[in-house]
């Protein structure tokens, strides 16, 4: 609608313009006619007279008998000719003249167009103006959209927005207000002035200025070109470096590194020849790097990564390789450089040997095994295993062994015992591997067995390491150096007996029965879960007497649920002579005993089970008995409604859904809505959240400093709006957000824009209507 | 052999300087700090309760006027100075820190209709019922000098409002039409009209400074462009708008205080639907002013209370009232966004805290951290019914309380009737009009 109108108005305007052009042409043609007006008239008369002479073609002249309305100076009657008067005829001379053709054309053009419409009324024009102005303003305002959106979504807004920059006056300004007073100052200033040292703003001496000016154009150009070249080269180099840095290939980097190392070595060689002093320094540097490496734990397979690899190494060939690689690297880095002069080397070499002989290096311990580190040894046993390892491959490291042999003969036996243990361990591992294979064949429960097997491995390892440790300790004690082995052997069965006794208590069995009532399947599940663990433990405790184990095992199986409920899994007791740890254990036991005595009266577990049973009963849907005694039959004291009737009117409650805690022995889940907790629960999902888990997650992440580090706490508790007290917050400005504010002031624009419509407005109008 | 020993590295517990924080080793293992949600919930509950305990927003009452306070103005450069004009033509300048009046001027005969300060803070303008516009110096006259205005402009009609441009020496008055004046001239450089009713207030846009908004008594709000010297658009509401206020941080947003108890926040580019309808007042809203942060605004109502609304919420977050405060005519939010001033019928100007429970004065860093933490907790648990109830609870004077109840009933009845009408007529014949659109009569281009 509006567009239509706009178009109309435009049309009107353009027509007006054309009308303005027209008269000019008219004038031209008019003046041309004017000159021979009189002559023409006479000529016309003459022509008429001649034509009237001719009889045939005589025209009937219109006779005017009376005054008629038709005759007027305004209306040209076409009655005489008997045809409609055409506008063009009036202009047509007898002879066609070229000068009038243009006029005709213009006339035709005018005729082809419609008549000019009335100009729009004032209201309409104003409305159009308003609309145009509004669109323009809206466009101006839309530049604020991103800013506003950003501010609305901002995590934190700090007001005032504009940064107050500290006003630092340049030194020259400060100096200008200062005058030399003391004689010393004056002297200094005199000197400065003599040298024409600048004190004021451009810190250039006249000489410098002159030199600056002296630089010719060509020189400047050359210099510029040079600079450009340098910059280009630099950028190429940077690009290249960046490209190379991006290459992900490990092989490539390895090659590059090797090349670098080689180059360095070559340089070093050269340096040695040319400048021995510098070479020495270099050597020292290398030596220092080696020392650092030896001191650090960097490639010692002790880091997090290495530990994780060590765990994986058993199964993963790659991990093993990676570990070996790292160790090789360590070896390489800690190797002594063989470049010093020969005489020195000899001396050093002997010294080293002596050192090695004296102190079997703990740091280099790992690399001593040439065949690569064994992750098991690394992980479980530390220094003790090393000795065992040396025992195993005696030909590789003859010196330390000899050393040890010379040290004491009494050590022999324990070492032998260790060997036995190790062998045992090996055997068991092979056995387990076999069993694993067989288990893998079973389709069901493979996951569980795997878990259990891994647990087995772990527990076995633990036991083994402990044994080794204790043996070591026992070896250290001189007094018991002889009698350790029998003692150990004596101790073993004792602990075995002790634990089952601890576990089997009559009341526990009773509670188990109660549990069995509750639900049988879950018990089975739990048993199955725990059995392998227990088996593992047991197998360690009784490595020899397997055949007579099953009987005991069964009993323990019955009890293991209780274990889960109450006591933590029985920790493996140390076997050998009482040590510090043993003492600690005893203390713990005492503590437990005391607690047991203190709470002798209340059996928490039984209470809990009772409570749970009651809860289950209460939650069961009840049958409804609708029998009315005495209705339809005899009633009275001692008379009961018949069984048939009772059966008929008893409405059995439908079986409810299974309880959620059916499979959870030590949990009671209340499935009823608790009104006391409901007061603290949100009933409907709050607005910005679209799903309940979103809301729950926001609630579950704590924001307090109890759960978060200081920095995280600060970040989590940043307020949305920060204002500085006592600071005026000014409205946002275009400059604040990086826009260029309009340079023209509003006032100047107004003064150029008086109220009436200007040509500029017209143009705008046209533009907008075209759009 | 395994050697066990204590290892102490002083780097782990010794401060480098005494200004550093004490190094406190902490174990963040979640198993050591169980029940995080319940514990934080309790903390949030306590924080909410304490907020209500410490909510004492009223700071001071400035008395001295001998008639109702009709208009207020802030000093643009000085936080402690405010100006007020009363219904007896008296203008007073106050010092907020000392809480006393520092200057009194008998500026006009009859009401002081409007007052505004120049952007530089050296002078201020007043308009009054005596058809004059007067410019005054901010500093008082020297000893023995007469208290005289710098300039006086005699107009033909009564001016009902005035506002100064934010950057240039231009001000706008309203009355029969909106006039834009150069400070140096006695005739307006431009006057704009649209319609014939008298215009009650005019406000410059603080961001895009060439824009103006005005509201007239024929229920409309008109926007003008000073540069193009033309009105832009007009929106007609259900009832008369008393005044408008532009958002100082969002160039195209303004809020209108309406007689129909509501406030309407508009995006000036889309006037046919307000961005938000703010409803909580139970009587005509007389004045509105934005917080300089642009996140909230305060509105003064005829029902003897002022309310603080978040820009994006339709319900107020706070209501202030005192027994002695009568119809509040004008309200202003101070430029540091910490305080609110309101002038009322009973000749007093009151000073309130913008945040009722905020502690005044300098906070230590620990206090600040605790405050922020509590704030976040309150935000986190704000949807919990127990906390929501406590946070929302406000004591109201009986008149307001009963009026709220009454209006709730009226609204419910109206809603029911509408629902019934829709239910019992041909589907589609009764259009469902949203609450936002309900109050807009028309937008005139």
Automatic annotation (TrEMBL), chain A:
Residues 400-437, 505-530 have a biased composition (Basic and acidic residues). This is UTP14A small subunit processome component. Residues 536-545, 740-751 have a biased composition (Polar residues). Residues 24-50, 336-557, 740-771 are annotated as: Disordered. GO terms for cellular component: cytosol; nucleolus; small-subunit processome. Belongs to the UTP14 family. It comes from the Eukaryota. It is found in: Nucleus, Nucleolus. Pfam families: Utp14 (PF04615). Keywords: Nucleus, Phosphoprotein. The keyword Phosphoprotein applies. Its main location: nucleus.
Automatic annotation (TrEMBL), chain B:
One of its GO terms (molecular function) is ubiquitin-like ligase-substrate adaptor activity. GO terms for biological process: decidualization; female gamete generation; protein ubiquitination; rRNA processing. It comes from the Eukaryota. GO terms for cellular component: Cul4-RING E3 ubiquitin ligase complex; nucleolus; ribonucleoprotein complex. Residues 209-308 form the Translation initiation factor beta propellor-like domain. It is found in: Nucleus, Nucleolus. Keywords: Initiation factor, Nucleus, Protein biosynthesis, Repeat, Ribonucleoprotein, Ribosome biogenesis, rRNA processing, Ubl conjugation pathway, WD repeat. Pathway: Protein modification; protein ubiquitination. Part of the small subunit (SSU) processome, first precursor of the small eukaryotic ribosomal subunit. During the assembly of the SSU processome in the nucleolus, many ribosome biogenesis factors, an RNA chaperone and ribosomal proteins associate with the nascent pre-rRNA and work in concert to generate RNA folding, modifications, rearrangements and cleavage as well as targeted degradation of pre-ribosomal RNA by the RNA exosome. Participates in the 18S rRNA processing in growing oocytes, being essential for oocyte nonsurrounded nucleolus (NSN) to surrounded nucleolus (SN) transition. Part of the small subunit (SSU) processome, composed of more than 70 proteins and the RNA chaperone small nucleolar RNA (snoRNA) U3. Component of the DCX(DCAF13) E3 ubiquitin ligase complex, at least composed of CUL4 (CUL4A or CUL4B), DDB1, DCAF13 and RBX1. Interacts (via WD40 domain) with DDB1. Interacts with ESR1 and LATS1. This is DDB1- and CUL4-associated factor 13. It comes from Macaca mulatta (Rhesus macaque).
């Amino acid at each position: 609608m509006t567009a239509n109108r706009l178009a109309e108005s435009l049309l009107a305007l353009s027509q007006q313009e054309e009308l303005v052009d027209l008269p000019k042409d008219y004038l031209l043609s008019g003046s041309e006619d004017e000159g021979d007006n009189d002559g023409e008239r006479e000529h016309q008369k003459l022509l008429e007279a001649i034509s009237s002479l001719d009889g045939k073609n005589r025209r009937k002249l219109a006779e005017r008998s009376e005054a008629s309305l038709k005759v007027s100076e305004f209306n040209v009657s076409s009655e005489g000719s008997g045809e409609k008067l055409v506008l063009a005829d009036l202009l047509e001379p007898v002879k066609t003249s070229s000068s009038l053709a243009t006029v005709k054309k213009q006339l035709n053009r005018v005729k082809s167009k419609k008549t000019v419409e009335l100009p729009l009324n004032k209201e309409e024009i104003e409305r159009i103006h308003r609309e145009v102005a509004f669109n323009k303003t809206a466009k101006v305002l839309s530049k604020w959209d991103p800013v506003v959106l950003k501010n609305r979504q901002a995590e934190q807004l700090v007001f005032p927005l504009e940064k107050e920059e500290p006003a630092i006056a340049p030194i020259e300004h400060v100096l200008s207000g200062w005058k030399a007073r003391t004689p010393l100052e004056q002297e200094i200033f005199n000197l400065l002035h003599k040298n024409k040292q600048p004190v004021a703003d451009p810190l250039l001496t006249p000489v410098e200025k002159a030199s600056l000016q002296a630089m010719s154009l060509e020189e400047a150009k050359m210099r510029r070109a040079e600079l450009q070249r340098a910059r280009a080269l630099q950028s190429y180099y940077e690009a290249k470096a960046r490209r190379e840095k991006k290459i992900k290939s490990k092989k490539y980097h390895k090659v590059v590194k090797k090349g670098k190392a080689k180059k360095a070595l070559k340089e070093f060689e050269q340096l040695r020849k040319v400048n021995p002093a510098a070479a020495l320094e270099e050597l020292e540097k290398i030596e220092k790097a080696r020392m650092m490496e030896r001191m650090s734990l960097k490639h010692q397979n002790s880091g997090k990564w290495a530990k994780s690899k060590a765990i994986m190494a058993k199964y993963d060939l790659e991990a093993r390789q990676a570990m070996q690689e790292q160790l090789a690297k360590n070896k390489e880095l800690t190797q002594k450089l063989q470049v010093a002069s020969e005489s020195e080397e000899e001396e050093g070499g002997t010294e080293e040997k002596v050192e090695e002989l004296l102190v079997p290096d703990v740091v280099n311990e790992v690399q001593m095994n040439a065949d690569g580190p064994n992750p098991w040894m690394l992980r479980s046993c530390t220094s003790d295993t090393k000795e065992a390892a040396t025992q195993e491959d005696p030909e590789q490291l003859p010196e330390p062994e000899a050393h040890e042999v010379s040290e004491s003969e009494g050590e022999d036996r324990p070492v032998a015992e260790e060997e036995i243990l190790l062998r045992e361990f090996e055997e068991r591992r092979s056995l387990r591997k076999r069993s694993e294979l067989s288990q893998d064949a079973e389709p069901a429960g493979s996951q569980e067995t795997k878990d259990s097997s891994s647990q087995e491995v772990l527990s076995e390892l633990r036991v083994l390491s402990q044994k080794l440790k204790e043996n070591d300790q026992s070896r250290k004690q001189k007094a018991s150096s002889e009698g350790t082995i029998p003692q150990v052997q004596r101790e073993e069965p004792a602990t075995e007996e002790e634990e089952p006794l601890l576990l089997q208590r009559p009341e526990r069995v009773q509670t188990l029965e109660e549990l069995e009532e509750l639900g049988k399947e879950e018990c089975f599940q739990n048993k199955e879960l725990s059995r392998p663990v227990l088996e593992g433990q047991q197998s360690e405790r009784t490595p020899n007497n397997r055949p007579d184990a099953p009987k005991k095992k069964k009993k323990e199986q019955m009890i293991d649920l209780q274990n889960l409920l109450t006591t933590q899994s029985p920790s493996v007791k140390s076997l050998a002579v009482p040590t510090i740890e043993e003492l600690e254990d005893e203390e713990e036991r005492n503590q437990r005993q005391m607690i047991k005595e203190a709470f002798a009266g209340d059996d928490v577990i039984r209470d809990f089970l009772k409570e749970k049973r009651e809860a289950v009963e209460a939650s069961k849907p009840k049958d409804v008995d609708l029998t009315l005694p005495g209705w339809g039959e005899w009633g009275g004291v001692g008379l009961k409604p018949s069984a048939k009737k009772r059966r008929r009117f008893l409405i059995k409650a439908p079986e409810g859904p299974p309880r959620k805690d059916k499979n959870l022995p030590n949990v009671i889940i209340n499935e009823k809505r608790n009104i006391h907790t409901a007061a603290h629960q949100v009933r409907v999902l709050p607005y910005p959240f679209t799903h309940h888990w979103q809301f729950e997650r926001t609630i579950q992440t704590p924001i307090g400093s109890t759960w978060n580090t200081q920095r995280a706490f600060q970040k989590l508790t940043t307020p949305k709006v920060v204002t500085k007290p006592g600071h005026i917050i000014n409205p946002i400005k275009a400059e604040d957000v990086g826009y260029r504010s309009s340079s023209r002031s509003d006032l100047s624009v107004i003064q150029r824009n008086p109220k009436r419509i200007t040509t500029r407005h017209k143009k705008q109008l046209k533009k907008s209507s075209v759009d | 052999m395994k050697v066990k020993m204590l290892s102490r590295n002083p780097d782990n517990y010794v401060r480098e300087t005494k200004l550093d924080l004490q190094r406190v080793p902490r174990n963040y293992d979640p198993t050591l700090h169980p029940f995080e949600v319940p514990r934080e919930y309790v903390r949030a509950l306590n924080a909410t309760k304490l907020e209500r305990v410490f909510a004492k927003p009223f700071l001071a009452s400035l008395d001295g006027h001998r008639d109702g306070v009709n208009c207020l103005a802030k000093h643009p450069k000085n936080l402690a100075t405010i100006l007020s004009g009363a219904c007896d033509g008296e203008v007073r300048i106050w010092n907020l820190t000392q809480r006393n009046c520092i200057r009194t001027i008998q500026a006009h005969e009859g009401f002081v209709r409007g007052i505004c300060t120049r952007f530089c803070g050296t002078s201020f303008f007043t308009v009054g019922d005596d058809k004059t516009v007067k410019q005054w110096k901010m500093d008082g006259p020297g000893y023995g000098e007469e208290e005289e205005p710098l300039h006086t402009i005699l107009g033909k009609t009564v001016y009902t409002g005035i506002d100064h441009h934010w950057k240039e020496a231009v001000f706008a008055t309203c009355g029969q039409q909106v006039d834009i004046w150069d400070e140096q001239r006695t005739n307006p450089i431009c006057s704009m009209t649209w319609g014939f009713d008298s215009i009650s207030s005019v406000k410059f846009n603080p961001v895009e400074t060439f824009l103006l908004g005005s509201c007239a008594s024929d229920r409309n709000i008109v926007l003008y462009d000073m540069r193009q010297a033309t009105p832009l658009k007009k929106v007609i509401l259900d009832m008369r708008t008393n005044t408008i206020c532009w958002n100082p941080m969002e160039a195209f947003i303004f809020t209108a205080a309406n007689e129909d108890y509501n406030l309407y926040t508009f995006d000036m580019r889309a006037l046919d639907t307000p961005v938000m309808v703010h409803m909580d007042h139970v009587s005509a809203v007389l004045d509105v002013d934005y917080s300089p942060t642009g996140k909230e605004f305060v509105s003064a109502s005829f029902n003897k209370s002022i309310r603080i609304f978040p820009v994006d919420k339709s319900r107020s977050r706070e209501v202030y009232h005192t027994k002695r405060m009568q119809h509040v005519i004008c309200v202003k939010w101070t430029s540091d966004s910490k305080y609110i001033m309101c002038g009322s019928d009973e000749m007093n100007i009151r000073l309130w805290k913008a945040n009722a429970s905020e502690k005044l004065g300098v906070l230590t860093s620990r206090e600040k951290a605790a405050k922020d933490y509590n704030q976040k907790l309150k935000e986190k648990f704000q949807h919990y019914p127990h906390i929501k109830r406590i946070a929302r609870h406000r004591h109201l004077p009986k008149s307001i309380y009963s009026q709220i109840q009454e209006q709730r009933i009226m609204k419910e009845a109206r809603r029911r009737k509408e629902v019934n009408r829709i239910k019992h007529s041909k589907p589609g014949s009764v259009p469902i009009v949203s609450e936002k659109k309900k109050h807009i009569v028309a937008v005139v281009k």
